[in-house]
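protien #1 (seq + structre)
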Amino acid sequence: GINLLNLGGAGRAGLGTNPLITKMRQMLRVNDSKLLIADAAQIEARILAWFAGQQDMLEAFAEGRDIYSEFGSKLFAARLRKARKTDPPPLAKLFTIRRGFAKDTVLGAGYGLGVNRFYNNCLQNPGLRPMFDSGQYDRKFIEKLIYGYRNTYSMIPKFWKMCEKCFRLVTKYPHEVMRYAPEGSTVGPGDLLTFWNNGGTVNVQLPSGRVLYYPHAVIRKKKNDYDYDNQISYHHGPLWGGSLTENIVQAIARDLLVHWILKAEEFGLPVVLHIYDEILAVSSTIYAKDNLKTLMNIMSNGPEWADGLPLAAEGEISETYKK
């Protein structure tokens, strides 16, 4: 069978995009009206930078800069940008591959993606594998990507450690409450995150007010050579700072998505589908352009609890669902 979930795009690590996905998207269409397709731009990277207090990344997003190209330019010590239709094919391919590496690093390394896994993902991609087999890229190159990210955006690894520390402390000392907000945070009253233990279930309250629950939270002792000593764990398995960060960031992305959907419907835009950070609404043809602007404006603004989080959206009008 085919796993249609989260397949990588061209020039990306992973298995690459199966052409069937494009065909399946085109099956979703509207008649006598238009489909408004709006996508929250780099939403997880933005939320992560906001939580971690990674100010240079937040400023880049707020100014509308291409963070993937900027990071890639630093890694490759050469100017990088999105490929254009007017670029000669070899140049377009080079830009696409290099920016793809940078994008995958920014998106994956933010949750603690390691060298081995990233390297193996690249080897599984039929478009990238020949470049590794030929020696154009190798494991040392992947090390450069991962450690380049961690050094460039050093507040993010610190955030992993903070999440793990808070979780560990309230697990070990159930009567403690741990609160977190990055230095210089512009968030309103209260804290970005609050950790506490309720009868063995660690609770993590998000800035939206929603709570994540981790039942049967424990600190495990090492049982064999493959275990980590003092590993934090809960009902569904082991945890660490990177996995907690992923849970927290994706939960906030979901809260924002719901906020935008409700706002869109307040403005009379019927939402017919949502996929990850993407919203699809139906509009009459005559008002499609204005309604798309409205939807993108909604998705470029957050609720009060997301103060200081720079948001942006991209969108298009179509008769069928497409990327």
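ok now protien #2
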Amino acid sequence: MKKISLLVLFITLLGCKKDYKPENKIKEDVTFLADDKLEGRQTGTAGEQEAAAYIAKRFKELGLQPSGTSDYYQAFSFKPKTDPHSEVSFTTMAEDGTITGTNVLGYIDNKADNTIIIGAHYDHLGYGGDGSLYKGEKAIHNGADDNASGVAVMLNLASKLKETNTANNYLFMAFSGEEMGLLGSNYFVKNPTIDTKAVSYMINMDMVGRLKQDSTLAVYGTGTSPIFKQVLNSHNDKFKLIEKESGVGPSDHTSFYLADIPVMHFFTGQHEDYHKPSDDSDKLNYEGMETISNYIFEIITDLNDNGKLAFRKTKNESEETPRFKVGLGVVPDYMFDGKGMRIDGVSEDKPAQKAGLQKGDIVIKLGDSAIVDMMSYMRALSVFKEGDSTNVRVERKGDTLDIDLKF
């Protein structure tokens, strides 16, 4: 009887192994993060905190070391640029309106000289608010593709890289505050928990859950290191790659590019559910996510023995904003809460760069308009058209400078 029982157990386990699919764990992670009970994972809410705890638990299960300022967590505080919506319950709001968000960080320490950062934001829009494209009644925005998908692929890569490719260390980061302006990644770059001088490159994944039938995969930042294009194409036998050289874009890789770190950002494209309550877990291509994870793993493996990668500045291929006829060609510092608009990055061959504006400059006047915050900057910018000339007043290291600029 004992032998028969063992035989039945063996056959059962064999059957389970045969039915196992690697994308199942990816689906499990997405399903948890994109569940209604997390109420859209808006930064500063209970849903965000529950998501952060889940990611920290997964890091621990995978054997990653804590790399935050408090265990796996790195807290950052900010004041919303607009008044919080009445339906939002911020559990971390202070009396002065300051909200606390949380990054989650796990580390694989291979005692190597260089570190690779692999990241994805985990926050979303809660019940919608300003970022929502939905026009109906109040509803939870679960953000399955944006960006539970990126977090799930990041966790999948962590499981693959544990005990392998030991020529580098690996820092896995789940950012919060991305939807409010890259707040978490911006904060980490300015308050790192590791030596960022030893960072070889950064990989970001944002919306990687909707791989289409034609297998189109966009990769941004391909020009930020000379080796990226070669490696991307040498391992590509499954995707229709769309390569964008610029290191600047609307996701967390931008924060690292502006710190002179090579970046690659993976993205499967926009869709009709973007920033709507209909971005749910049942619409994701989980097999495609596993394929993307395998592709990124092959790229990391190929780059494993290249030491610290060379960094290269790129031209910004995106317009600063589609609502304006012109742009300065700068990346604003969304964490800045002083008077004016502080520049966090300057794009090559754009008006700001040609005029001599620099990272760290605080714009306090544009033309005839005083600049006190982001909104006044946007209003001032909207009156100009291509070919116009004006004057920009900036504060730079204690000095006030008036600079001529042409759009």
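Confidence is low (pLDDT under 50) at residues 83-87, 318-322.
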